[in-house]
Amino acid sequence: MRRIARLGLAIALVPALVLVTAPVSAQPPSDENHFRCYIVSQQMPQPAVPITLEDQFNEEPQATMAGEPVMFCPPVAKTVGDEVFPIEDEEEHYTLYAAPGVAEPRTVLITDQFGTDVPWRITTPKYVMVPTAKTVGGVTFDDRDDMNHYWCYEANGPGVGVRATLEDQISGPSNVRVTTPTLMCTPAEKVHGDQTFPIEDDDLHLACYEIHGKQKTQQLLLGVENQFEEDTFQTGPFEILCAPAEKTLPTP
């Protein structure tokens, strides 16, 4: 997984900001994957499993149950106007599993390629986002060792209203409208049984938006493997686009 030298950037900016009391604005991650998430329309049912999750919003680990897979998310190339965001690592994939939790609603400032310090209201934890290996056509894509796990919160905020072209290993190129925020995914330490998966990059978040566009009717069968299961998923229509993002808390 690629990482941005954010600390060095922050240090470089300090001399220019010594007389300013406002916090430094976040910078949008520029060399991390975007992900397009597809509905998992068919898979082998399995019982929910107990996990604990701890992120930057929790004072202590919170127990929850990881349920059925909801969406599968391959990396996607995104083009907006003349700006191209390529796939940075074609091996990285995620699966979203239902994982409800409890949290106090709060406002955060989201910075990504769609905006800087945009206020989002986040509420209830809804999904855990798990690094996943994918096998299709006898070829396996697997880069799980240094990927974040995420706890994804329901979110709302200003609509984007941007047209983009998306292309990934499942479908595309697709012309879509990126509309409203729907999930904010924050890095989380996950404990499953006797395995602990630490946060790999606590600055890197995923800001997820609803996307709308013409859908192909063809569905795809994928072999998947992660810490919860080995299974075959059938993918349905795409639902959301998750962009690399950073967050800050508004000044009181």
Describe this structure as you would to a colleague.
The chain is mainly beta and 252 residues long. The chain has one domain (24-248). The protein is 5% helix and 56% strand. The chain has 1 helix and 18 strands. It has one helix at residues 6-17, and strands spanning 34-42, 49-55, 62-66, 69-73, 75-80, 83-85, 94-98, 106-112, 115-131, 133-136, 139-141, 149-156, 162-168, 174-192, 195-197, 205-213, 220-225, 230-248. It has an 18-stranded antiparallel β-sheet that branches. The chain is globular, with a radius of gyration of 18 Å. Residues 1-26 have low confidence and may be disordered.
Summarize the structure in short.
The protein is mainly β and 252 residues long. The protein has one helix at 6-17; strands spanning 34-42, 49-55, 62-66, 69-73, 75-80, 83-85, 94-98, 106-112, 115-131, 133-136, 139-141, 149-156, 162-168, 174-192, 195-197, 205-213, 220-225, 230-248. It has an 18-stranded antiparallel beta sheet that branches.
Keywords:
single chain, 252 residues, mainly beta, 18-stranded antiparallel beta sheet, 1 helix, globular, disordered N terminus
Shape: globular
**Count of discrete domains:** 1
Helix percentage range: under 10%
Largest sheet: 18 strands, antiparallel
| Total beta strand runs | 18
Low-confidence runs: 1-26
CA gyration radius, whole angstroms: 18 Å
Number of helices: 1
What class, by secondary structure content? mainly beta
The average pLDDT is 87
Proportion in β-strands: over 45%
Quaternary structure classification: single chain
How far do the termini sit from each other? 34 Å
Report the order of strands and helices: HEEEEEEEEEEEEEEEEEE
